[in-house]
Amino acid sequence: MNPESTFFTESTRSLKQSALFSELADSSIADILSRCRRETWKRRRQLPMEETWKRFHILLSGRVRLSRSNPENGRMITLFLLGPGDPFCIFSLLDGEAHDVMLETLDDVTLLSMPMSEARQWLNEHPEFNRKLLPYLGEKMCSLAGLASDLALHDTETRLARLILRYVDSGTQEQHVTPRLINDLSHEFLAEMIGSVRVVVNRQLQHWKQEGIIDAHRGHLEVEALQELAKRADNHLVKIPA
Amino acid sequence: MVEENSCVAVYEEHLQAETAVRQLLEEGFDAEKLSIVGKGWQREEHPIGFYNTGDRMKLWGAQGAFWGGLWGLLLGAAFFWVPGLGAVIIAGPLVGVLVAALEGAAVVGGLSVLGAALYSIGIPRDSIIRYETAIKSDQYLLIVHGGQSEVERAHDVLATGDALDVTIHLS
Questions:
Q1: pTM
Q2: Do residues A88 and A66 make contact, with C-beta atoms less than 8 angstroms apart?
């Protein structure tokens, strides 16, 4: 990417706003951008991992879902929902292997892309990035562990409440909040994030709507009573002031 | 039918764009899959005009050789006056896309006719705004249409040249 281009400036700004890259020095960001090419992918583009795992991508705008499905019964589970600033495929970066995951764009997305070998070289040359990368990886591992335990231990109501809370800024004092990334997703999509089906999620959301816990209309989801939702999640780790 | 994958490069000067076209042709790219967009007649102090004395359109003006050469090489030639952008000259298959957008009334809300043509080949809105700004600023767009591997290869060729930006757009 040419340092004099408008896209270079925009990309730098996007990385500076992301949690993962924000503390990097300008020279480190310039170095990673010089190794990247800029791509855009249209909404609803589906890619099996064998087409993407040889390149490292950083999302600049839009959302990407990483999921796994069973072609025999059509069931699907969303493993990660990624937004601006998130990299993928992080596991392939670590182990150099392809993984059985499907990528799907939920919006028109803009991203940076570079060969995995370049990404590894950049990591070796900028070890300071590990201060952010390791907690990020830890968060992703916790997210997967949370999904696995939710599927095994909790009912649909709890799983759905936990999902919504995961996308609410922690420590917020507000009772009325709009969840990040998931607030405009279809009920079917939400179901695929918690290992359920559309009708069950739809019924639960309608129930909560009648109770005044959430407001869901025209494909838009808002939380009206965060404290009450936290109770439904039975999530003692979420600390919301009374 | 123009494929909905493309590689778009932005150039400051028409000579840089012309060099890039030659470079792509030397690398074996199909001339029928390349398009160029520009204004072509800025800062003129002499008469300019579009004329046809044979089988193809020509431009009388400082950039006559550039556009005449491209129109002889690429598939399609057009001059449009686009509100908000002014005069836009195009060479290549994007001409057909733009005319189809006009004929099919497929102009997308908030976009110029050029923007609608770019949108219909799979370029998202954010990038279209950047490209329209580039045209307004007298820069040039070189577009390579094709399959994913073709546009990726085009990127590798164009990234070594004088382009301000090179972006791959995949549908």
A1: 0.83
A2: yes
- Give the pair of three-digit tokens for residue A221: 């989801």
Q: How far apart are the first and last CA of chain B?
A: 15
Answer whether B165 sits within 8 Å of A38, measured CB to CB.
yes
CATH no. for A6-146: 2.60.120.10
Query: Taking CB atoms and an 8 Å limit, are A42 and B159 in contact across chains?
Result: no
- What was the pLDDT predicted at B53? 73
How many CB pairs below 8 Å do chains A and B form together?
Answer: 56
Nearest to A236 by CA among A172, A158, A179, A181: A158
What is the C-alpha separation between A224 and B16, in angstroms, rounded?
57
Strands ordered across the beta sheet of A37-41: A87-88, A55-61, A109-115, A37-41, B165-170, B6-11, B140-145, B34-38, B86-91, B77-82
Taking 70 as the pLDDT cut, the residues of chain A under it are: 235-242
The reply to whether residue B167 touches residue A7, judged by beta carbons under 8 angstroms, is yes
Q: Which of A177, A176, A203 is nearest to A191 (CA)?
A: A203
Assembly ipTM: 0.77
Set of chain B residues whose Cβ sits within 8 Å of the Cβ of A7: 130, 165, 167
Is cis: bond before A89, omega within 30 of 0?
Answer: yes
HSE toward the beta carbon, residue A229, CA cutoff 13 A = 31
Torsion on CA atoms A98, A100, A106, A108, rounded to nearest 10: 20
Task: Work out the minimum CA distance from A112 to partner chain B, whole angstroms.
Answer: 10
Q: In chain A, list all ranges with CATH 1.10.10.10.
A: 155-233
Chain B contact for A61 (CB, 8 A cutoff):
yes
Q: Where are the beta strands (DSSP E) in B24-101?
A: 34-38, 49-52, 57-60, 77-82, 86-91
Instruction: Note the pLDDT tens digit of each residue in A54-96.
Output: 899 999 999 999 999 988 888 899 999 999 999 998 989 989 8
Classify A155-233 by CATH class: mainly alpha
